[in-house]
Specification:
elongated, Claudin, Butyryl-CoA Dehydrogenase, subunit A, domain 3, alpha+beta
């Protein structure tokens, strides 16, 4: 039972960590169409902004000036939280691999292996919370930006939606959290 639970938690943690890494690296956190005819489709990410012409499919991307340049708070905070979540999830995966019952590392001391799984669950929990805060922070800021345009009657047909990277970050964070719950609560 314990080995099956560990392998299940490992699979979920691995998939969720990949989701977190993809969310951090991709550039579609916020989607908006610049006009009511939807001639172009714009995606804003943590690292660049891309515009796709819907008629011919040509995509052009603009890199943000520099990592050290002044950026909006939502980008800086989300970058920081997502990178930290990625690092913690990677560390948790490495610890979890060593703590799995099916791995022969420290086979003679099962108590240490169980503690490694428990520690991996705690690290994964911390990473998932940071990733969820980063993703939700960005999503709330997108919602507030749209609400400000609507309240000042500057809406002009522009709509803002959460991009697939934002949803991927939220899904990866929730998956890491579920894996951490499996490792910390169900193993004992």
């Amino acid at each position: 039972m314990s080995a099956a639970l560990q392998v299940t938690a490992f699979g979920l943690a691995l998939l969720s960590t990949l989701f977190l890494l993809l969310a951090t690296c991709t550039d579609c956190w916020m989607v908006n169409a610049d006009d009511s005819l939807e001639v172009s489709h714009k995606c804003r990410g943590l690292w660049r902004e891309c515009v796709t012409n819907m008629q011919d499919g040509v995509r052009t991307c603009d890199q943000y000036d520099s990592i050290l340049a002044d950026h909006p708070v939502k980008i800086v905070v989300t970058r920081t939280l997502m990178i930290t979540a990625d690092l913690l999830a990677g560390l948790a995966l490495a610890t979890l691999v060593l703590g799995l019952d099916c791995i022969t590392f420290l086979k003679e001391d099962p108590c240490v292996k169980l503690k490694m799984c428990y520690g991996a669950g705690l690290i994964l929990c911390a990473g998932s919370i940071l990733g969820l805060i980063g993703s939700v922070w960005y999503a709330v800021d997108v919602y507030v930006e749209r609400a400000m345009l609507v309240s000042h009657n500057i809406f002009l047909g522009v709509h803002y939606d959460f991009g697939w990277s934002c949803w991927l970050g939220m899904a990866g964070s929730m998956g890491c959290f579920v894996a951490s719950v499996l490792l910390t609560c169900c193993l004992y």
